[in-house]
Write a structure and sequence with these properties.
Structural class: alpha+beta
CATH class of the largest domain: Mainly Alpha
Protein name: Alpha-1,2-mannosidase
Radius of gyration: 26 Å
Pfam families: Glyco_hydro_92, Glyco_hydro_92N
Number of domains: 2
Shape: globular
GO molecular function, one term: peptide-N4-(N-acetyl-beta-glucosaminyl)asparagine amidase activity
CATH architecture of the largest domain: Alpha/alpha barrel
GO biological process, one term: carbohydrate metabolic process
Organism: Lentisphaera araneosa HTCC2155
């Protein structure tokens, strides 16, 4: 299957359709929701870029689903593919993308809430699957249908279902997904099915737990479920009555059986046939086995009139059913109103930055990268299950991926959103004692999953925001600093301060802790808290413990998704001292020239001409060229070298050879906008060196 050509033709169709819609401005025409949805397929790199190493999977992992900027709700055609639920991607950790043939343009229905650009994040959402169908039964309830004519622009998606010619339109407000189904006049026995038990990916048993739903009126369904220890509440409003509507649900028993050393355990066994009811249904299941988790389901099915248009509004809350209903009531009344609001909001966001594109390619890349930089994290005002009515921000997937680029973009250029992100982070720090690297919708225990990536980068983020505090209203910085002592007393931080490193963790955590204390001191000094500054000023110098003065690099060891080379050129607050430790400016420059491949080109060990089909995974000690985020700021280390002009030489090579328009155009996982925002910030020539504080 030539999936690349299929997806590229899809993207071309999107742009041509947008051009026909006169109400769309240039930004909405060129911002491509399909950008980076599939595997990377770009021409061979030339020049110094030919020497770079691609450590990670070569696929962008984005999705085309409509949502508001930083919206709580998005909607996609659900194929079950990795990692968003859209497309045909297989789970890939390294190398070129692989695809499921059976997933191509084939969906089960349309689901809500997705990750964006991540890898194996472990939490994939995709709730409340809506499917136009006919002759619903337990065999047909999860039948794939072909999608024709997929089209999208920011805030809007449409397609046509090949088997029954139903036209589907999707849009969203901040907390509500909007569906519109155009039922053909000649369609026999049309129905709409809503699966309340859906969750996760097709290849991962990740259904929701303890789901219940009830019909409150002839046009309103409400209910709740739990997913990975996190409660969701929903309200579904239909524009038509639920004609002949019924719940169908499979429940189970928990017989005991022996296993191994005569220990007993309870195993849930599904009943062979679903139960049917008209007013409510419930499945009380906490733990499922891998084999039977997909056997339990709870659907609601109602008849549709041939030739009718059906609109569904599906609202979510993390607090209560009553709040979900309130979110429903405060959302736009109709699909068209919601679409207009979404398009208008996206237009305002996409036209904010002052950028003059050089050509058509440049326009497509600028607006598409900017769009995918404004999708995450999810801002959920007054929805926190952990604290009272304050902003709640989730889906930092992960902070390690976005603290250097995407969050600074929001803080400086989108302060109305950036201030909420910072407030949400501080609220989480107040509640959990620190900010988990993978702060997602799950119970606090599962939030710790990605803490091995970094330590204390929330403080670096806060310090960058503090530099721009004049744009960010309502942030109590002294209150934020009350978390400094909690950070300093963390076991991991204490171990690093005592030994120079933490057992079992990369040396980068020592750099993290050093920058975190530098950030704390920076804010404390600005707030006039001299005693706090004095308390932690010395801790900033811990970074020196992990550099090798003989090599000029970080000490050898295990490093996350790279080697010591990838992390040795991380600009921080003490770069003059770091250059001296490397042996001086000339030695530092020589190390940089080796890392970025200039020496490979000069020596003739790498051809600068680019070779078709040349494997990109050969040089483990070279720059990863935005295939990953670990060394994305390293080009700026040349500012402390004897060849500062090479910063721009490297950046221009990345922008020219590592990105291209279309579904195959992002060089690696976009990771919640971490990669796309790098392109945007360099395009407007304002890349933030977030750890390079000035005391």
């Amino acid at each position: 299957m030539n999936f690349t050509k299929i997806l590229c033709s899809l993207s071309i169709g999107i742009l041509s359709l947008s051009a026909q819609q006169g109400h769309l401005n240039e930004a909405l025409k060129y911002a491509d929701p399909f950008y980076g949805n599939a595997g990377t397929d770009i021409p061979p790199a030339k020049g110094v870029a030919a020497a770079w190493n691609w450590e990670k999977a070569q696929q962008g992992n984005t999705h085309p689903g409509p949502q508001m900027p930083f919206g709580m709700v998005s909607i996609i055609p659900y194929t079950g593919a990795y990692p968003t639920g859209y497309g045909a991607n297989k789970k890939t950790f390294t190398g070129k993308a692989q695809y499921f043939d059976k997933y191509k343009d084939a969906a089960y229905g349309f689901t809500h809430m997705q990750q964006s650009g991540t890898g194996t994040i472990g939490i994939y959402y995709n709730f409340l699957r809506v499917s136009p169908t006919t002759n619903y039964n337990k065999e047909t309830r999860k039948t794939r249908f072909k999608m024709n004519e997929q089209n999208a622009h920011p805030g809007y998606f449409n397609c046509t279902i090949a088997e029954n010619d139903v036209k589907v339109e999707l849009t969203a407000s901040q907390k509500v997904g909007f569906h519109r189904y155009h039922i053909p006049a000649n369609m026999e026995s049309p129905q709409i099915s809503i699966d309340f038990s859906e969750g996760g990916l097709d290849t991962r048993e990740d259904n929701v737990r303890n789901v219940k739903a009830q019909k409150e009126s002839e046009t309103l369904l409400t209910g709740e479920f739990n997913h990975i220890g996190f409660n969701y509440y929903f309200a579904v409003k239909s524009s038509v009555s639920f004609k002949n509507g019924s719940f169908y649900h499979v429940i189970g028993e928990r017989p005991e059986r022996s296993k191994g050393n005569n220990k007993k355990r309870k195993v849930v066994i599904p009943n062979p046939d679903p139960e049917k009811s008209t007013d409510k249904a419930e499945i009380k299941i906490n733990k499922l086995t891998r084999k039977n988790s997909r056997m339990f389901y709870l659907d609601y099915v109602f008849d549709a009139e041939p030739g009718s248009n059906i609109e569904l509004k599906i609202a979510f809350s993390f607090r209560s059913v009553e709040q979900a209903k309130a979110n429903l009531m405060s959302a736009p009344n109709s699909f068209d109103e919601a679409r207009s609001q979404a398009e208008s909001t996206w237009e305002q966001c996409l036209t904010r930055l002052d950028y003059k594109a050089k050509d058509e390619r440049d326009k497509k890349l600028f607006y598409s990268n900017l769009y995918h930089s404004l999708v995450k994290p999810s801002i959920c005002d007054n929805e926190s299950p952990f604290w009272e009515d304050e902003v709640f921000v989730t889906d930092f997937s992960t902070l390690w991926d976005v603290y250097k680029t995407q969050i600074p973009l929001l803080v400086k250029y989108y302060p109305e959103y950036g201030s909420k992100v910072i407030k949400g982070m501080i609220n989480a720090m107040d509640t959990h004692g620190y900010f988990p690297c993978g702060y997602q919708k799950c119970d606090p225990k599962n939030m710790k999953k990605f803490d091995g990536q970094c330590t204390g980068m929330e403080w670096v983020t806060l310090a960058y925001a503090y530099k721009h505090k004049g744009k960010l209203g309502g942030i109590d910085w002294k209150k934020a600093l009350k978390n400094a002592d909690k950070f300093a007393q963390m076991d991991r931080v204490q171990e690093i301060l005592k030994n120079g490193h933490a057992e079992g963790l990369s040396n980068t955590h020592t750099l993290d802790v050093s920058s975190a204390f530098a950030a704390i001191c920076f804010i404390a000094k600005g707030e006039g808290l001299q005693s706090l500054y004095d308390k932690y000023a010395e801790h900033r110098n811990i970074w020196q413990k992990v550099y090798d003065s003989e090599t000029g690099l970080l000490k050898e060891g295990d490093y996350y998704e790279g080697t010591q080379w990838n992390y040795s050129f991380r600009p921080h607050f003490a770069m003059e001292e770091r250059v001296k430790l490397a042996g001086g400016k000339e030695k530092f420059t020589e190390l940089l020239d080796t890392f970025f491949g200039f020496k490979d080109i000069e020596a003739g060990t790498v051809s600068p001409d680019g070779i078709e089909g040349f494997p990109r995974q050969l040089r483990k000690f070279r720059f990863e060229g935005l295939n990953n985020e670990c060394d994305m700021e390293a080009p700026y280390a040349y500012q402390w070298s004897s060849k500062p002009e090479r910063t721009q030489e490297v950046i221009k090579a990345v922008m020219k050879y590592q990105f291209q328009p279309g579904p195959n155009g992002i060089p690696g996982n976009n990771d919640s906008g971490g990669t796309s925002s790098w392109w945007v910030l360099n395009a407007i020539e304002d890349f933030p060196l977030v750890e390079n504080f000035e005391d």
